[in-house]
Structure formats: C-alpha cells, structure tokens
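Sorry, any thoughts here?
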Amino acid sequence: MNDGGVDARFGRRGRNLPLCCAMRTASIVSVLECVVNVSQGRDKGVIDEVAASCGDSLLDVHSDFDYDRSVLTLAGPSVTVDVARLARRTLELIDFRRYRGVHPALGALDVVPFVPLGETTFETAVRQRDEFGAWLAEQFGLPVFLYGDETSLPQIRKSAFTTLAPTYGNPRPDPIVGSTCVGARGLLVALNINLACSWERARYVARTLRSGSVRALALLAGDRVQVSMNLIDPLVFTPLMAVASAALMEQVRSVELVGLLPEAVVLGHEAEYEAVGIDPTATIEARLRRKIAHS
C-alpha cells in the first residue's frame, strides 16, 4: 500500500495508456473510462465525499433519489488509481443494508466497468478488470463477480450466489456492503425514458424494445413510469432511435441521460438531441478536452 491508501499495482504510471494532450479532433487517442455505480443517491454529503475521492479523473456524477444510486464517470491517465480510491471511500461510507432503491443492486460498490476508448485495446480493459477485481477481493474481503464476454451483468444479477459463485473473494455477500461486479465492456449509453402510461404498458414497451443492442427494464421511480435502458451498441441503435421507438408506442414525457454520451452519436444531430432534452455537449470527449484545457 502507498501513502494514499491505494495498492501499488494501481499507482504505477506505466499501467495506463497515456491520454494524448494534443487533441486536434474529437477522437481520444488512448484512454480508459470507468463508469462506477454506487448504491447511494439520496445523501448529498456522502455522494460529494465519494466524488471528491475520484481526483482528476472525475468527468460526471449523476444521482437519482428513487434509484438510490449514483453513476460516476471517470477517465484519464490516472483512472485506475482514482477508481481504487473511489472504491475505498464508497466501502467506508455506504451501508448497503440501508439501500431502498428501485434499481436492482448487489452491493454498495455495485458495478465497476472498464471501457476502452480510442486506440486502447479491449484486452487492456480486461486486464484492468481482472487486476482490480482481485485487488478488491483481497483488500476488502468482498465477493467480486467479473463480467464481460464470458458472463453478462444481467446473468450475474439473476444468478449471483445461487447458481453462480463469485470469481474472487468470499462465497457469500458481505453483511454490510454486499458484493461488487467488475466488468470490461464497450461503449454503452444509459437512458431513462419517462412515459405517460401505466407500469403495465411500460413493461410492454420495455419488452418490445429489448434486442441484442438494447437492454430495457420498466420501473416505477417515484411518480415516474419509466423504461430504463442500456444501449449496448449506441452507434447502431442510438439514443434518438430509442426515444423515437418508445414514442411510437406511448407518449414520452421526458428523457434522462445517465452519465455521458460518446461524441460519435451526437455529431450532426445536436439539435435533435436538444429537442428531446438531452444536452449534446454531455460527451466523454468534451469533458476530457475541458480537463486538458484547464490542466
């Protein structure tokens, strides 16, 4: 352990592929993104403390009271160090026994996916996933499930601790913080579409939209009837297509982007995104450029 409380394996600069500081176009030359989901969306003080632990890698925080969940987007040359610090602070501050959110969850530090951007290889993301998952289990005694090409996150949520054992760590959930899913995946866009209909109709919309490129779940989130979606191939089935498809079945009241967009889905369609209530500047690349400009 170093003085910052992070395993030395996650402190060597050579572990991360460098971010190109001379970004002349919208592309990211080589960088890892990590989109961490923690089971706390109601206590602003706790959320702020977790966010503060992320250092320079933090690009975005999205919190939802009814989900009792926050999504923190990190990217940059020190992302693995900062994710380790985030993990430590989350496990210190969040008691999963108090979780009351409508979103499925397995633990306080619920989901930690590593995402390759630009020229970063998927193998790099898999290696960081494996190392981080092993470190998490060793340091905190947590059950850790790995997901990616071998096992999907929905499969883990369905079968954890029944027919599916953790990849690392204890065979049972921690009594206070539960367990953690650590993954390697490609680009994904998380989108919540609020509908003017019953929950039963929202379930129909979710079932209809599900495909190899779309994961969808109907939820009652406070006074919102909602279809929560993960677009797992957002360059093929874009957020605009998702909203249009839902609108063919039910009236869309509003749309919520969870996290950030890849810039490639926005370019040339900025006005259309604004029209459905999505900020077209909320992209990974724009936030990284802003960080570089102010560094």
